[in-house]
Specification:
alpha+beta, six-stranded antiparallel β-sheet, Knr4/Smi1-like_dom
């Protein structure tokens, strides 16, 4: 994994490996390696303004969104536990059905997720709760966290 610190204007203090391992034990699975490595560099953080936006094509519509913040370990674990305890929140299905962990929040109210089971391991997805209908479907953004970080652009570069 490349050194993704260059994409951040602020990173929180790194989290000890023992805390990550304790959280993994509690959840019953390992956090994907790339996000685990990120947590060891900084326990969440805020991306640089010039590398915080992304755009995607969903059907025949183009969407642009931007990362508000990347989650630390407590938020990742808390969102997973909340999904396990309750199948719905405000009428929306929880993302744990899709075998993903929430790793970032977007400015439009959506989220960035990373797959943690073999069929989606390390893949990065976007869920936008604003455009979601009865069923919220994740949209694959990239095959890895590195690839996702490299595709981020500034808001001036958005073509939507």
């Amino acid at each position: 994994m490349e050194d993704i610190r260059k994409y951040f204007k602020q990173l929180e203090k790194p989290i000890p490996l023992q805390e990550i391992e304790a959280a993994e034990f509690k959840m019953g699975f390992s956090i994907p390696k790339s996000y685990r490595d990120f947590l060891l560099l900084g326990n969440g953080g805020f991306p640089n303004d010039e590398k915080c936006c992304f755009q995607i094509n969903v059907g025949h519509e183009y969407y642009g969104d931007s990362i508000s913040d990347f989650h630390g370990l407590a938020s990742v674990v808390g969102s997973y536990e909340g999904g396990v305890e309750s199948e719905h929140d405000d009428g929306y299905p929880y993302f744990y059905h899709y075998e993903m962990l929430g790793i970032a929040t977007t400015h439009l109210g959506g989220g960035i997720y990373i797959g943690y089971l073999p069929n989606n391991y390390e893949k990065i997805f976007w869920i936008n709760y604003v455009i979601g209908q009865d069923e919220i479907m994740p949209v694959k953004l990239s095959d890895s966290l590195d690839e996702f970080m490299q595709m981020l652009i500034s808001d001036e570069q958005l073509d939507v």
